[in-house]
Design a protein that fits this description.
By secondary structure, the protein is an alpha+beta fold. It has helices at about 20-25, 50-65, 65-75, 75-90, 100-115, 205-210, 230-235, 240-245, 255-275, 300-305, 360-370, 375-380, 420-440, 475-485, 505-510, 540-555; strands spanning about 40-45, 45-50, 135-140, 140, 145-150, 170-175, 195-200, 250-255, 285-290, 310, 315, 320-325, 335, 335-345, 385-395, 405-415, 455-465, 470, 500, 515, 520-525, 535, 560, 565. It folds into two domains: about 45-335 and about 465-565, Zn peptidases (Aminopeptidase, 3-Layer(aba) Sandwich); about 335-465, Alpha-Beta Plaits (2-Layer Sandwich), CATH 3.30.70.360. Helices cover about 30% and strands about 20% of the residues. The strands form eight sheets. The chain has a five-stranded mixed β-sheet. It is globular and about 85 Å long. The two termini are about 45 Å apart. About 50% of the residues are buried. This is Peptidase M20. It comes from Diaphorobacter limosus. Keywords: Signal.
């Protein structure tokens, strides 16, 4: 794959006086107010160069007494139990993509009633509105993010800079939605059962087999887990799947166990401990459970946070995020984008003999799509671009009729680069109409005739693409160097493959982005399936991952150390964006 290089003349950070920035946040521990901001560096032979200022800041943050106190608390048996309980209590709340309102409501409740936040520090609302964003509705639906703010010192400092009233923020996020169930259960049944099965037994293959498992976790009327014999069985941890199988470990079956409530619940633990220990960043920190990552969620949560308009393909970054850390990945920096279409071919309004067929119209379209050559097939050296007809289904005829009323076609196009993604879309999208027209033409029907077959676009999804190239942005450097210092999840080289994550939106918008995993599982399987499961892993690994995350986040945002000195932010206070706001936002 030919890498996509960012021209060396392209500014990756908004211009800002380092002296003004550092003076505004209290200077650094050496009193050197003229020290420049750390710089984006190169990735050389797969390894990112680390600006010495990033490494130095990370060491100071990690050694801070308050962070050491948090690590000490995380390492206790009481914290281990609390983290497991919270994970189980949250993951059982049915939270289908785009219908996350119940999950968001419970997270909002805990933020205020249990984690110590003021209502004003909870930035998202029950109706899905996010003050300051210019994207509130995605695919006609509200966006149920759950975000809390840890206010930094920067906004109250002299000469503080903002983007249309929004001061700089560092975002840390992981999603709260699941693939299964696909439909929100009724209010009378808001929870999914959490079934337990011996690892020595075969994985279930049907919903009926899963339902037949009699052993499950119990919860009281307030939603708290009951610590009975089944709890004791499920809450045991193991280092590996082999030791779990030999030691009587169990599968914990519940959709979202790993993807992504294990990570998201860990983030919420971080939010609680930051508040408890009065952690004071320089830039504001937002910790968010995001909506709409899975299935047809269309990255709705991130599109709201970053003001990403999918019709324009650009993000306004209205809240002025200067860096983003995703918590459901493994360090990937290349992000696969996609165009996804759900098209419905409909039979004539008044069915009769000798009229066009919805089935044949869809078949004609599929035949045309099958002949399309992607950019990577047409030209050597072009990044791999693919497409697939993911599903073709038809509605059964009405009683007493042999006319199929409609057929639905799902087409998915993917690439790491926006230009090749757009190119294959330009080849395929007109074929929906071409297949329809060909079927109508067979019967001599005019396009808009009452006895012609018709076409409806039911849904369109966009995940913007991003190729990192040889750039080591500030978030990547912070994530990389803290893995080395903490000695957890170290990688020999930056992954050359690609992922499709929430990170697609901020990275495409231009915001420095990196991702990691926070949870610890001894084993797991069934991601995105009704039979998703996991087995509890070593809690010490989870503590190490949280320690790394805390350090990287505060290294980036800047941090007031316990000795009253300040680690300066690693990024300039004006975030990147690919579209400008046309109005002043209300902070």
């Amino acid at each position: 794959m030919k890498p996509h290089h960012v021209p060396s003349s392209a500014p990756l950070l908004a211009t800002v006086s380092a002296a003004v920035l550092l003076a505004a946040c209290g200077g650094n521990s050496d009193g050197d107010a003229e020290a420049p901001l750390p710089k984006p560096t190169a990735i050389v032979n797969g390894v990112p160069e680390i600006d010495p200022a990033i490494a130095e800041s990370a060491k100071k943050v990690m050694a801070d007494k308050k962070l050491q106190d948090i690590v000490a608390e995380l390492s206790t048996a009481a914290s281990e139990k609390a983290r497991f309980n919270q994970h189980m209590e949250l993951v059982r709340i049915a939270s289908p993509s785009r219908y996350e309102s119940r999950m968001a409501a419970e997270v909002h409740r805990r933020m205020v009633n249990e984690w110590g936040y003021l209502a004003s520090e909870v930035k998202t609302r029950a109706d899905g509105n996010l003050s300051g964003s210019d994207v509130q509705i995605v695919d006609g639906l509200p966006v149920y993010n759950a975000c809390v703010e840890i206010k930094g010192s920067y906004s109250s400092s002299p000469n503080a800079q903002s983007y249309k009233g929004q001061f700089p923020k560092v975002l840390v996020e992981s999603h709260i939605d699941v693939v299964n169930p696909e439909v929100l259960p009724p209010d009378s049944a808001p929870y999914q059962p959490i079934k337990l099965q011996s690892l020595k037994d075969a994985v279930v293959t049907s919903p009926e087999q899963l339902a037949a498992i009699g052993t499950e976790l119990a919860f009281d009327g307030s939603g708290r887990i009951i610590e009975d014999a089944n709890y004791a069985l499920a809450s045991r941890w193991f280092a590996t799947e082999a030791t779990a199988k030999d030691g009587g470990g169990v599968r914990i079956y519940v959709p979202g166990y790993s993807d992504a409530m294990g990570n998201t619940s860990s983030l919420f633990t971080l939010a609680r401990l930051f508040k408890k220990n009065n952690i004071k960043p320089v830039y504001d920190l937002w910790i968010c459970g995001t909506a709409g990552e899975e299935g047809k969620g269309n990255l709705a949560g991130m599109k709201q946070l970053f003001g990403f308009d999918q019709n324009l393909g650009t993000g306004s970054n209205p809240l002025n995020f200067v860096a983003n850390f995703g918590s459901e990945g493994g360090g990937a920096v290349n992000l696969t984008g996609s165009h996804r279409f759900e098209m419905k071919f409909k039979a004539p309004t008044h069915p009769a003999a000798g009229q066009p067929s919805a089935v044949e119209a869809m078949a004609a379209t599929i035949a045309r799509i099958a002949d399309v050559k992607t950019p990577s097939e047409l030209r050597p050296g072009v990044v791999k671009t693919t497409y697939t007809v993911g599903q073709a289904s038809c509605k059964a005829p009405a009683a007493g009729s042999d006319v199929v009323p409609s057929c639905t076609l799902l087409v998915d196009m993917r690439s790491e680069r926006t230009d090749t993604l757009n190119e294959v879309r330009a080849s395929i999208e007109p074929l929906f109409k071409a297949g329809l027209n060909a079927e109508n033409a067979r019967y001599g029907k005019a396009e808009n005739a009452v006895d012609a077959a018709t076409l409806e676009q039911v849904w369109y999804g966009l995940r913007p693409a991003f190729v990192n190239g040889d750039q080591a942005n500030i978030a990547l450097q912070a994530g990389w160097v803290t893995a080395q210092i903490v000695d957890v999840d170290k990688q020999a080289k930056v992954p050359t493959g690609s992922s499709s994550l929430n990170d697609n939106v901020p990275a495409n918008t231009g915001v420095p982005t990196y991702n990691w995993t926070l949870a610890s599982n001894a084993a797991g399987g069934g991601g995105h399936a009704f039979w998703e499961w996991g087995t509890k892993g070593d809690p010490k690994l989870e503590v190490q991952r949280l320690k790394r995350a805390m350090t990287a986040i505060l290294t980036t945002s800047g941090y007031h150390l316990s000795d009253s000195t300040v680690v300066a932010p690693s990024v300039a206070p004006i975030g990147k964006r690919s579209r400008e706001l046309k109005y002043e936002v209300t902070p």
